[in-house]
Structure formats: structure tokens, C-alpha cells
Design brief:
Layout lengths: L3 E5 L7 H9 L4 E4 L8 E5 L2 E5 L12 E4 L4 E2 L1 H13 L7 E4 L3 E2 L2 H14 L11 H10 L13 H20 L7 H15 L3 E2 L1 H10 L4 E4 L23 H8 L8 E7 L2 E3 L12 H9 L12 E3 L1 E2 H11 L3 E5 L9 E10 L2 E3 L6 H5 L2 E8 L16 H14 L3 E5 L7 E3 L15
Parallel strand pairs: 1-10, 1-11, 2-5, 2-10, 5-7, 6-8, 7-9, 11-15, 14-16, 15-19
Antiparallel strand pairs: 3-4, 12-13, 16-17, 16-18, 19-20
Helix pairs in contact: 3-4, 5-6
The structure holds guanosine-5'-diphosphate, 6-O-phosphoryl inosine monophosphate (IMO) and magnesium ion (MG).
Guanosine-5'-diphosphate (GDP) binds next to helix 1 and strand 3.
Length: 437
């Protein structure tokens, strides 16, 4: 038995969906523990493309329990649409469970997210506009609506009504927007509640029971380490904790239950939205990575900013998540490049800095110091073992592993399940964590 956390090591979109799907094969329960419909996880099975926002990627396998845990924020309209879409494709959602304690993204959250972004003008974050920040803000402010409220025609309805009335003040007075109709929203959200009712559970209890029965749990992170509210590039972050530590809080399990933590890293780096990005490329190579890597947001369709691999944030992700091993994705995207750069340190105000600076103003001034490696200029998508990869590609992987002082267990060379090299068993291989550094 092994309980495994899969997290993103960069700014999201590392290919977590593909790696989670791959590892779900040996899991019994797949748990999403934070974030909401800001996430977009693409899974390709036999050339059929599935885009999942809230439902764990494990749903594509029959007989796996998929749990949307209490640390997530649930937009019921989108979740129900996602359930319907999967059902239309013949995929059962009978074993999908939603935590009754998860907070609900309400219509005013989306309106406030978008209005706040507009008002921030040059200080905007570049959010997905899906109401994620305002939902988590209400949770912290203790005025949130939870899934359990949608199931309760009295106290729950009253909570929704009161929340809408309260938020109408914000919409009208702060943003000059028209008020929402509390009764219409109560009726609509109670109806969503009825449709979700068969899926609603005490998620922490359900996960704990599965752990006691020695079933394998896979905790699927959304977003990435540098988007973490506490440890990312604040304020250009999301409002939850995508790092490994967030899994225990979001799922409601103790840290002692976790056996393994796997980080997913793209062979280069992308970022959507605003905020510093030291290795960003504004030239034809950045454009090449974007086109060849099809780097357009799964959720918003926005063009992703592209840059070279950043070993400073990579090492930071190893540390802050206590990673055991890495999955490197999209190596094939580098196939045509004559040379490849890797950032090994930053220069900040004339000083060489090797550790990620927790001071975000210092990070904003970071200039990358690169090591240049030769490219391989050979297609790799068909490779199924390390020995089939060109020598330069193997050297590139070794360089990354040495830089981050962590083994690479998986290499992904295409969006399909099969386009993968398993170098060592990511779940049962040696355990590393911080002690290995
Ligand atoms: P996530 O948010 O971390 O799950 O990542 P996304 O799904 O948003 O973005 C990753 C994109 O890259 C998706 O379109 C995947 O289908 C695709 N992808 C994943 N792994 C590979 C790979 O190894 N090579 C290529 N070319 N595409 C990949
Ligand atoms: P997955 O799970 C990439 C980014 C947004 C913005 C910031 C805050 O697919 O990796 P939010 O709407 O969360 O308040 O936006 O976070 N962001 C993501 N970027 N992948 C994601 O999810 C993201 N979810 C949020 O672009 O910069
Ligand atoms: Mg994504």
C-alpha cells in the first residue's frame, strides 16, 4: 500500500493530469485536495482528449473512487456540466464523491473576481476569473457557503440568502454592479444541491476508511508550487495551497499517512497570468515552445508565457514539497532545438543567488544565469526506454536530476498514456525527501 501526492513544481500546467492518470492505474482512490475550476487537467487516452477542471483524473478508470475533498472550492454549475459531459462519453461518475465541507463558488464570486481584476488595473494578477480568490476569501472570513448548505432547505437556504444580501452590498457599493436576486440564487443552488446530493459525503472520513483498509490513495494537486498562497510568488499566486503540505489539510488526513511525494516538472517552464518569470523568452524560441508545446490554457485559452527550465525554482520545489522523485514532461517539445539552456542560479543586484528568494521583490529582479547544453535535433515521441533516447536528451535529464539532487522516475514524451518512459518505480522506489539533500 502507498499513499502518494502528485504536485506541480512550477506555475501549473506541468502535465499533472497526464501523470496522475498514469499513476491512477495503481491507485484505488484519487483525491483532489485544493483549488477549483481554475485548474485544467488534460488527459489523452487513445487520442481522445479529456479536459477536467474539478473531477480527479482517475475518473477515466472504472472502479476507482474519486473524491473532491474539503479543501477544494466547488462551482456546482461547472461540476454538474463536467459530470454530464463524462456521462455522455460513457464514463461512469457513480464513484465520484464531493466533500460536504467544500466551499461553494457562488455567482457573486465570479463577478467580484472579474471586477476586482479590472479595478486592480496595472496591479492585476491575471486570475482565471472563475471566482477562486473570492471563494477562499469568504472561507477565511467565515461567511462562505458550503456544499452542505446546498442540501438544507432551511438553515442552508438562510445561509445562502444572507450571503447574497451581504455580497450585494459589495457588488453595488464597491464595484457599482447591479445586485443579485437572493431568492433566485437560493432556488438555483438548492436545485444544484439536489443533483449533487448522491455524491456528497464526509470526505475526510471516507479517505481515512480507505487508508485503514490499506487501499492506495493518490492525492492529485492542482496549480503548482510557485502559485501556492503561502510559498509561491505572492501576490501572483492562487488562493489555495497546491504544495504537498496542502494535501493533508485539504483532504483531512494526518501527515503520517503519506508515503510518497512526486513532483511534475515540464522540461521547460510556462506561466499564465501576471508575475515575475526570470527565464521567460520573448524571442522566436519562446514562440517555438508555445507552438510546439501547444501552450494555450486549458481553462481560459490564454497563451502561456514560455521560458527555459529554471533549476532555482526546481530546487525550491524539491525542498518545499519534500519530493521523493520527479516526472519530467514534454521533453519531446525540445526535440528541434540546436541548444537548450537551463537556469542554474540568479543574479540579483550583482550577487549570485542559488536559493529561491522568499522576498518577492528580490525575485522580481532575478536575472537567470544559464548553462547551455546541446540539443538532440531528433524526434523522441516514439522512445519507450532511456536507451532509445538520443545521448544529448539523456544528458539533459541527468543535468536536471543533478541540479535538483533528485531522481527522475518518469519521462513523458507525448500527451498519450503510452508516450512515457518509466525509469524507476515512482511509488515503490527509494524514498528521498529532504534528508537526501
Ligand atoms: P496540468 O494542468 O498540469 O494537468 O497540465 P495541462 O493539462 O493544463 O497542460 C499540459 C498539456 O500538455 C496538455 O495539453 C497535455 O495533454 C500535454 N502533455 C502532457 N504531457 C505531454 C508530453 O510529454 N508531451 C507533449 N507534447 N504534450 C504533453
Ligand atoms: P492547473 O491545475 C496555470 C493562475 C492564473 C493566475 C493565478 C491566480 O491546470 O495547473 P486564480 O484564478 O487561481 O485566482 O488565478 O493562478 N492559475 C493557473 N495557472 N495552471 C492552473 O491550474 C492555474 N490555476 C490558476 O493564471 O496567474
Ligand atoms: Mg492545466
Amino acid at each position: 500500500m502507498a499513499n502518494v501526492i502528485v504536485i506541480g513544481t512550477q506555475w501549473g500546467d506541468e502535465g499533472k493530469g497526464k501523470i496522475t492518470d498514469l499513476l491512477s492505474r495503481s491507485a484505488d482512490v484519487i483525491v483532489r485536495y485544493q483549488g477549483g475550476i481554475n485548474a485544467g487537467h488534460t488527459v489523452v487516452v487513445n487520442d481522445q482528449v479529456f479536459k477536467l477542471h474539478l473531477i480527479p483524473s482517475g475518473i477515466l478508470y472504472p472502479n476507482k473512487d474519486c473524491i473532491i475533498a474539503g479543501g477544494t472550492v466547488v462551482d456546482p454549475q461547472t461540476l454538474l456540466a463536467e459530470i454530464e459531459r463524462l456521462q455522455e462519453l460513457g464514463i461512469s461518475t457513480d464513484r465520484l464523491y464531493v466533500a460536504e465541507t467544500a466551499h461553494v463558488t457562488m455567482p457573486y464570486h465570479r463577478l467580484i473576481d472579474q471586477a476586482a481584476e479590472q479595478q486592480r488595473a496595472k496591479h492585476r494578477i491575471g486570475t482565471t476569473g472563475r471566482g477562486i480568490g473570492p471563494t477562499y476569501a469568504d472561507k477565511s472570513e467565515r461567511i462562505g457557503v458550503r456544499v452542505l448548505d446546498l442540501l438544507d432547505r432551511e438553515a442552508g437556504a438562510e445561509q445562502i440568502r444572507w450571503a447574497v444580501e451581504h455580497k450585494n452590498l459589495v457588488l453595488q457599493r464597491l464595484y457599482g454592479l447591479p445586485p443579485l436576486d437572493p431568492e433566485a440564487i437560493v432556488a438555483q443552488y438548492l436545485e444544484y444541491g439536489e443533483r449533487l446530493r448522491p455524491h456528497v459525503v464526509d470526505a475526510s472520513l471516507k479517505i481515512s476508511e480507505a487508508i485503514r483498509k490499506r487501499r492506495n490513495i493518490l492525492f492529485e494537486g492542482a496549480q503548482g508550487t510557485l502559485l501556492d498562497l503561502d510559498h509561491g510568488t505572492y501576490p501572483y499566486v492562487t488562493s489555495s495551497n497546491p504544495i504537498a503540505g496542502g494535501a493533508c489539510i485539504g483532504a483531512g488526513v494526518g501527515p503520517t499517512t503519506i508515503d510518497r511525494i512526486i513532483g511534475v516538472a515540464k522540461a521547460y517552464v510556462t506561466r499564465v497570468g501576471e508575475g515575475p518569470f526570470p527565464t521567460e523568452l520573448h524571442d522566436h524560441i519562446g514562440e517555438y515552445l508555445c507552438q510546439r508545446g501547444a501552450e494555450y490554457g486549458t481553462t481560459t485559452g490564454r497563451k502561456r508565457r514560455c521560458g527555459w527550465f529554471d533549476g532555482v525554482i526546481g530546487r525550491y520545489a524539491v525542498r518545499i514539497n519534500g519530493l521523493d522523485c520527479l516526472a519530467i514532461t514534454k521533453l519531446d517539445v525540445l526535440d528541434e532545438l540546436p541548444e537548450i539552456k537551463v537556469c542554474i542560479a540568479y543574479e540579483i543586484e550583482g550577487k549570485v543567488v542559488r536559493d529561491f528568494p522568499s522576498n518577492s521583490r528580490a525575485f522580481a529582479k532575478a536575472k537567470p544565469i544559464y548553462e547551455t547544453l546541446p540539443g538532440w535535433r531528433t524526434p523522441t515521441q516514439h522512445c519507450r526506454s532511456l536507451s532509445e533516447l538520443p545521448r544529448e536528451a539523456r544528458d539533459y535529464l541527468k543535468f536536471l536530476a543533478d541540479l535538483m539532487e533528485i531522481p527522475i522516475a518518469i519521462v513523458s514524451l507525448g500527451a498519450n498514456r503510452g508516450q512515457t518512459i518509466i525509469i524507476e518505480d515512482p511509488i515503490h522506489g527509494p524514498k528521498r525527501g529532504l534528508l537526501s539533500l
